[in-house]
Design goal:
3 domains; 20 helices; Aspartate Aminotransferase, domain 1; seven-stranded mixed sheet; 15 strands; four-stranded antiparallel sheet; binds pyridoxal-5'-phosphate
Length: 473
């Protein structure tokens, strides 16, 4: 052993770094831009040079293939979501339905009337049709759209909280963090507002709000506790009561709703009531903000709806220009809103569809999938799942679901998971209770054949290009 490794070492010294061109030739067709491939090859060869110990040519090529596989995997691409989390920020939140895709194609590939008034032949407002219908759907006087809900909130704060009147009153129970990098106190600060916390974490009274009002107060802000819940000794005044206080002091009252549910979520078994924009406005909130790509099920966007005067003023803010959406987003949202207004959400909005899919449908699909994997050496059974809404929405709600529970005979569960992620398309599931679980609620029925194939491939064949990870092992 020792002797042969010495010989190997000696021969390593004699090997030269392979030429870039030679490596490129052996890599073959890669479906990646040549420039990007060349850059990776150069980088890897550069690293080899530093290591001083040069492996044989085949090993060099394999290593570079691994690096290219990592590069390819980083490209935005479809994945099969077997996590059961409907609105998963890591997976691009809400998938879009056929009606929206059709709009994207036709608007994206043609010129359009984005800012052109067809009736007068002159310059027109941007997305006026969308704004009107959004207002209608929200039961608001007016509405507009920016890039995301965070941007909507920043815009609202920058406009309403201007020094010396820049204090924003908010309950200590609502100083929340949503996802990565969105913390209400930091957003407030970044917007030039001053935070005026009232109450305690678990209890805030109406008097806490009233007492905090002074001549520097700019607005009262309510933030929906979208991604966590509090129980036990908790209390806070109703939206109506806070609205009354705001009105009495002639202060604007804003609410960050986060999710933007337009359906009565409580009608779905296991799901709680999620406040809708229309409800918040009816209770006396002057302006609400919510995401386009959470429960609404549309593209990434931040909707602002409420009093016409506020919405109009927000649109006049110079900063509004920096947050405006492009034609594709506006067109996609326009179709999404039209679908809701036409009563077609369940048929056309994938997130709503998945929410409403009965467990029995999922169970039937699971049986069919298992049937198709009969010949594969694996233990696979139908399990019970608990789908979640995700995306920082309805944290307490779980939807009874159906899972495929897989126990591969020939490999460890993490390795199986890695192989599924290496597949095309990649499939992502969860490990729980000694099984690899795939929740079928978030797998589109049309993906079932791909899912069967993915499981088969992961179990049967070594992935063609080992990843860096495996090479290191
Ligand atoms: C998700 C969420 C946001 C952030 O929305 P984005 O559209 O991702 O910017 C803000 N506020 C609340 C309450 C949320 O739930």
């Amino acid at each position: 052993m020792a002797k042969s490794s010495l010989i190997a070492k000696a021969s390593n010294k004699l090997r030269a770094i392979p030429a870039v061109e030679k490596v490129l030739q052996s890599l073959g067709e890669l479906s990646l831009p040549r420039q990007a491939v060349v850059a990776i090859v150069r980088r890897e060869l550069g690293l080899l040079r530093k290591e001083r110990k040069i492996p044989d040519f085949e090993t060099v090529v394999e290593r570079i293939r691994g690096a290219l596989q990592t590069l390819r995997a980083d490209r935005i691409q479809p994945v099969i979501n077997g996590t059961g989390i409907l609105v998963h920020t890591n997976f691009g939140r809400a998938p879009l339905g056929p009606a929206v895709l059709e709009t994207l194609e036709i608007v994206g590939s043609n010129y359009n009337n984005l800012e052109y008034d067809l009736s007068t032949g002159e310059r027109g407002g941007r997305a006026t049709y969308l704004e009107n219908n959004l207002a209608l759907l929200c039961g608001a006087e007016a509405a507009t759209v920016v890039n995301n809900c965070a941007a909507a909130l920043v815009l609202i704060l920058r406009h309403l909280a201007v020094p010396p009147r820049n204090e924003v009153i908010i309950s200590r129970g609502e100083l929340v963090q949503i996802g990565g990098g969105f913390r209400i106190p930091e957003i407030l600060e970044a917007s030039g507002a001053r935070l005026r916390e009232v109450g305690t974490t678990n209890k805030t009274s109406l008097a806490d709000y009233s007492k905090a009002i002074n001549k520097s107060t700019a607005l009262i802000l309510k933030v929906h506790r979208s991604n966590f819940f509090m129980g036990g000794f908790v209390d806070s005044p109703s939206t109506e009561e806070i609205a009354q206080v705001a009105r009495k002091h002639r202060l604007p009252f804003a609410e960050d709703l986060g999710s933007g549910a337009m359906i009565a979520t409580e009608q779905i078994a296991g799901i709680e009531h999620e406040p809708t924009p229309a409800e918040a406005l009816k209770r006396g909130v002057d302006v609400v903000s919510f995401s386009g790509d959470k429960l609404l099920g549309g593209p990434q966007a931040g909707v602002i709806a409420g009093k016409a005067k506020i919405v109009a003023a927000l649109k006049k803010e110079p900063f509004f220009r920096a947050l405006r959406c492009d034609k594709l987003i506006l067109a996609a949202l326009q179709t999404t809103i039209d679908v809701y207004l036409a009563g077609g959400a369940e048929a056309e909005i994938p997130v709503v569809q998945m929410l409403r899919t009965p467990k029995e449908d999922l169970a039937r699909r699971a049986e069919l999938i298992i049937e198709q994997l009969k010949d594969v050496p694996v233990q696979i059974s139908v399990g019970t799942g608990k789908s979640q809404i995700g995306g920082g929405t309805l944290p307490r709600s779980v939807l009874a679901s159906v899972t495929l529970d897989i126990a591969p005979k020939s490999m460890r569960l993490p390795d199986f998971g890695k192989r599924l992620r290496d597949g095309r398309p990649p499939l992502i599931g969860m490990i729980s209770g000694g099984r690899f679980k795939i929740d079928l609620r978030t797998v589109f029925p049309r993906q079932d054949p791909e899912l069967v194939e993915a499981i088969r491939m992961a179990l049967e064949e070594r992935p063609k290009y080992p990843s860096n990870q495996r090479l290191k092992e």
